[in-house]
Amino acid sequence: MRNSTSVEQAIDDLAHRYLQHAQGGRLRMRLTEFVVFGLKQAWACVFGAALLAVIIAARLWYPDDAGLARNDFLTIAAVAIQILMISFKLETLRELRVILLFHAVGTVMELFKTDVGSWSYEAEGFLRIGAVPLFSGFMYAAVGSYMVRVFRLFDLHFDHYPWRWITALVAAGIYINFFSHHYILDARWVLLAAVVLVYGRCMMHFRVFRKRFRMPILVSFLLVALFIWFAENIGTWSHAWLYPNQVNGWQAVSIDKLLAWFLLMIISVVLVAWVYKPEPPPSPTGATQIRQGHPDIHIARPPE
């Protein structure tokens, strides 16, 4: 695995030694790829899964009369998870920089959105800024953790990846619109069109175990956004936060939120590209194209 931590490399080496000796036909090989894909995805989600497990546990079992407010407990738990991730070499210090940036970007958005009433938290605890408990920033950090980990776990490469300055402009427009649409015209559909235009030709290449696969990057954005939407339903059910229509009784988060998460994925990808520069897949001869990232260059698909 590219840029993997020492613990991840040890696990990967052990899995490869086992799987390389696995015997079987085509069906078993495909099943192996599918299982490894699922395991890698689960491993990439370890930060978010741990945080979500704590949120659910606090909802089910945290005592109402505890001396420590539930929101403060969640913040302390989130900090502990992050420390453990670094201590056990599940994340690198280089990746921690972009995760902290996710935290800052998310917290600023939380402060604004709670102020205008888009959603709300229980008014309890001391570890908060205004109406925003500090654990909320870690939910954005969990997305950042997943993004940087999946990048190296699947050895991602890209055909026709757009110039990064163009993607940065689109991401900036999306971020600004999350604030400005409360006062002026909502441009999310225009921004969606811009995303499709900028990323439409981009193809993502990824390795599971023995083989490399590829899919349109827009499809990957949609799949991750859908996964986050499911997690958001669990989070609101746990009363970690609530939308206005959920205050008097929980109901599923509107599917309309899927567009917001899809657009947020663009911000996430741009932030991760600050740590891992998107590169084209190796040519069939193993050579690397010189003009990486140029949207007009065609990179041959590697043999599978």
List keywords for this structure.
mainly alpha; 5 strands; disordered C terminus; globular; 304 residues
Structural summary, described in words:
- By secondary structure, the chain is mostly helical.
- Residues 286-304 have low confidence and may be disordered.
- It is built from 10 helices and 5 strands; from the N terminus they run αααααββαβααββαα.
- It has helices spanning 6-20, 26-44, 46-61, 70-87, 93-115, 135-153, 164-180, 188-199, 217-237, 257-273, and strands at residues 128-129, 132-133, 157-159, 203-207, 212-216.
- The relative contact order is 0.13.
- Helices cover 58% and strands 6% of the residues.
- The two termini are 17 Å apart.
- The radius of gyration is 21 Å and the shape is globular.
- Helix 3 (46-61) packs antiparallel against helix 4 (70-87) and helix 9 packs across helix 10 (257-273).
- A hairpin with a 2-residue loop joins strand 1 (128-129) and strand 2 (132-133).
- The strands form 2 sheets. It has a 3-stranded antiparallel β-sheet with strand order 3-4-5. Strands 1-2 form a two-stranded antiparallel sheet.
